[in-house]
Automatic annotation (TrEMBL):
GO terms for molecular function: oxidoreductase activity, acting on the aldehyde or oxo group of donors, NAD or NADP as acceptor. InterPro entries: Ald_DH/histidinol_DH, Ald_DH_C, Ald_DH_N, Aldehyde_DH_dom, Aldehyde_DH_Superfamily. CDD domains: ALDH_F5_SSADH_GabD (cd07103). Belongs to the aldehyde dehydrogenase family. This is NAD-dependent succinate-semialdehyde dehydrogenase. Keywords: Oxidoreductase. Residues 22-472 form the Aldehyde dehydrogenase domain. PANTHER family: SUCCINATE-SEMIALDEHYDE DEHYDROGENASE, MITOCHONDRIAL (PTHR43353). It comes from the Bacteria. Gene3D superfamilies: Aldehyde Dehydrogenase, Chain A, domain 1, Aldehyde Dehydrogenase, Chain A, domain 2. Pfam families: Aldedh (PF00171).
């Protein structure tokens, strides 16, 4: 199978190949087949994209928010009309079941609409002055041309959160989506261009990530960086950003604790969290991942959770009935195997899965490990895959200590019917997002982001618009 999205760069309103002809293959992670080749931008192409974003910014910032919203709404409609085709491409390049690809695209379209509307409400404020006759205005303005680098796990949403936030605020953008999932990003860019986005407002480039980012970040043109990816790369980009003092939004990794108390409906929670854990093959930054279960509920939970894991149908994302697709690439199989070997050597029990499925594609069985000791690597490093460690906990204090033990602070989940326990968790859990008795942490209108090593700054909600704004203070009086 191959996709039907021609892969091109978008620079200054023109879709085209890289000027030096370099490219790399895009692989279907379910079949190992080459889907297409994604062009690499040369240094000259990157410079052209930066220059285009400088010009694009001047045009877009001067475009009334009402007009900007109309372009974004037209693009949302075009994406809706083309949803089936884009979702199929998304599944081919990333592996997730096509039903999930459709839902992801629907969410991305919502995000685009939300920021189109919210851009109209980029209010500043008037501050009463100390001197008579003086006017004092606090103004929110687009920060300038921006840069974005994003991971492959949500090829539509990761891209759209940055594109929509930037466009809604009046910024231009040079974005480097993942080379592993380029077609979805290109489809989004085509819809925006067709909808009438002025040239240079959105530029899409691909290449060798470290080379592209170091070149773009060294330029004084962009004023902002928004990154979604690992902690390690986030720290590296922030160091690069220091030289030109660009402000950053860092959406980094997590290792979300799931605290299950004996006073909840344990079987229901096991089913629900297993579905959450294995969604997208566990390749979700807010995936429920470290299962901390109160002693009195431990046996019931692990039994129901392992049963649910065994029932997850793994297969090609375009096949009927598939619940979980492949991992993004073969390299991730070895990482999962490493987690399982290490944990079982440390005394953990293998309750489900634990191995690769077949010898084609990057399929790995939904895996559950029980009685996992704190020292096991999987209790410390983000698995970013379908491996779920479960640990037994004695008390609320133990849960809190374990939940907060790692430097990450992205999402956290807890299930309890006790109000006092819930109150202690609301105050005590170190996470940018905490969901009690649900797994919902992401909507277009609410802030999404981490604390501590999971990064800072938010995407989603008014905070996601502010991320692309700067604040100025203007006074005005008569002499
Ligand atoms: P990664 O950091 O290696 O790569 C992420 C993206 O950045 C990829 O597109 C990659 O090509 C690019 N990249 C890599 N090195 C780069 C560099 N030097 N300069 C510019 N771009 C570079 O991470 P990964 O393992 O591919 O992705 C998974 C990670 O992303 C996980 O840690 C996950 O938690 C995190 N993530 C976070 C969020 C969030 O919103 N907090 C969302 C999705 C994924």
């Amino acid at each position: 199978m191959s996709y039907d999205e021609p892969l091109e760069l978008l620079i200054g309103g023109e879709f085209r190949a890289g000027s030096e002809g370099a490219s790399e293959p895009v692989i279907d992670p379910a079949t190992d087949e080459v889907l297409a080749h994604v062009p690499h931008a040369s240094t000259a192409d990157l410079d052209a994209a930066l220059e285009a974003s400088r010009r694009g910014f001047e045009v877009w910032r001067a475009t009334p928010a009402l007009e900007r919203q109309k372009v974004m709404e037209r693009a949302a409609r075009l994406l809706e009309e083309d949803k089936e085709r884009i979702a199929r491409n998304l599944t081919l390049e990333m592996g997730k079941p096509v039903g999930e690809a459709r839902l992801e695209l629907g969410f991305a379209i919502d995000v685009l609409r939300w920021y189109g509307e919210e851009g109209k409400r980029a209010y500043g404020r008037t501050v009463p002055a100390r001197a008579p006759g003086m006017r004092q205005e606090v103004r929110k303005e687009p920060v300038g041309p921006a840069l974005a680098f994003v991971a492959w796990n949500f090829p539509a949403v990761n891209v759209m959160r940055k594109v929509a936030g930037a466009l809604g605020a009046g910024c231009s953008l040079v974005i480097k989506p993942s080379e592993e999932t380029p077609a979805t990003a290109v489809a989004i860019a085509r819809a925006l261009q067709e909808a009438g986005l002025p040239e240079g407002v959105l530029n899409v480039v691909f290449g060798v990530p470290a080379e592209v980012s170091s070149h773009l970040i060294a330029s004084p043109i962009p004023k902002k960086i928004s990154f979604t990816g690992s902690v390690e790369v986030g720290k590296h980009l922030q160091r690069l950003a220091a030289d030109t003092l660009k402000r950053c939004t860092m959406e980094l990794g997590g290792h979300a604790p799931v605290m299950v108390f004996a006073d909840t409906d344990v079987e229901k929670v096991a089913k629900m969290t297993a579905a959450g854990k294995f969604r997208n093959g566990g390749q979700v930054c807010v995936s429920p991942t470290r299962f901390l279960v109160e002693d009195a509920a431990y046996d019931r939970f692990t039994q129901a959770f392992a049963e649910a894991a065994k029932g997850v149908q793994v297969g090609h994302g375009l096949e009927d009935g598939t619940v979980m697709g492949p991992l993004i690439g073969r390299r991730r199989i070895e990482v999962m195997e490493g987690f399982v070997e290490d944990a079982t050597a440390a005394g953990a029990q293998l309750l489900a899965g634990g191995e690769r499925i077949g010898n084609q594609g990057a399929f790995f069985a939904p895996t559950v490990l029980g009685e996992v000791p704190r020292e096991a690597r999987v209790m410390n490093e983000e698995p970013f895959g379908p491996v779920a460690p479960v640990a037994r906990m004695a008390s609320l204090d133990d849960m809190l200590e374990e939940a907060n033990r790692l430097p990450f602070g992205l999402a956290a989940y807890a299930f309890t019917s006790d109000r006092k326990t819930a109150g202690a968790l609301r105050e005590g859990v170190e996470a940018g997002m905490l969901a009690l008795n649900s797994l919902l942490v992401s909507t277009p209108e609410t802030p999404f982001g981490g604390i501590n090593d999971s990064g800072y700054g938010s995407e989603g909600g008014i905070e996601g618009l502010e991320a692309f704004q700067r604040t100025r203070f203007l006074t005005d009086t008569d002499l």
